[in-house]
Amino acid sequence: MRYLTFALTKGRLANKTLEMLEMLGITCEEMKDKSSRKLIFVNEELKLKFFLAKGPDVPTYVEYGAADIGVVGKDTIVEEGRKVHEVLDLGFGKCRMCVCGQEEARELLRHHELIRVATKYPNIAKDYFYNKKHQTVEIIKMNGSIELAPIVGLSEVIVDIVETGSTLKENGLVVLEEVCPLSARMIVNPVSMRMENDRIKELIVNLRKLLQEG
């Protein structure tokens, strides 16, 4: 039997995923050792391998078959646009992708003005403004704290992830429009889906049951 390989998003998503898998009796003791310098963790008995990766890299590993299964935020799946099957909404890591800005920017959105949009997610922003709202905008790709952009006048609005909204509030910004709801999703490599159909299906069915009970 070949190994089934999981690519997990470092941090909270990986921890929550491992908690869920543990409820199904799938454990990886090696991963609990925080001092470990290992990059790949193995459960020999169940023929499973796990590794941690940065969010945007997870769909890449899965598309190219370096991982059979990945767990990553919906925002990353949409932004990266990789050829993967999204098979399950894991229900944690819930937040929203929103258009935010100062209250006065609401009018600019309403009148479809040509505005500048700062974001870490240019593909999501582009799709939302061009295809859903049919509004022409200038998209500015950024990497740091996006909230700064409307405050210093770099952009009229931002497209960003909103969890509680407290950072926005502290900076005098509000949610102007919701783009889409987000949460952690399980993705599968299309070839793995065919070749390891029974093993992957069983995992999905068991996780779905767990989510329904929870």
List the helices and strands and how they pair.
Blueprint: E1 4-9, H1 12-23, E2 40-43, E3 48-53, H2 58-63, E4 69-73, H3 74-80, E5 85-89, E6 95-101, H4 105-110, E7 115-119, H5 122-132, E8 137-141, H6 148-151, E9 157-162, H7 166-170, E10 174-182, E11 184-188, H8 190-195, H9 197-213
Parallel strand pairs: 1-3, 1-4, 7-8, 7-9
Antiparallel strand pairs: 2-3, 4-11, 5-11, 6-9, 6-10
Strand content: 25-35%
Structural class: alpha/beta
SS field, number of helical segments: 9
Overall mean confidence score, pLDDT: 95
CATH superfamily of the largest domain: Periplasmic binding protein-like II
- Please tell me the CATH architecture of the largest domain by its name: 3-Layer(aba) Sandwich
| Helix content class | 25-40%
Number of domains: 2
Query: Can you identify the CATH class of the largest domain?
Result: Alpha Beta
Based on CA inertia axes, which overall geometry fits? elongated
Q: What distance lies between the first and last C-alpha atoms, to the nearest angstrom?
A: 32 Å
For the largest sheet, list the strands in their spatial order: 2-3-1-4-11-5
Number of strands: 11
Subunit arrangement of the protein: single chain
CATH topology of the largest domain: D-Maltodextrin-Binding Protein, domain 2
Order of SSEs, N→C?
EHEEHEHEEHEHEHEHEEHH
Describe the biggest sheet?
6 strands, mixed
What gyration radius follows from the Cα positions, in whole Å? Answer: 20 Å
**Low-pLDDT residue spans:** none
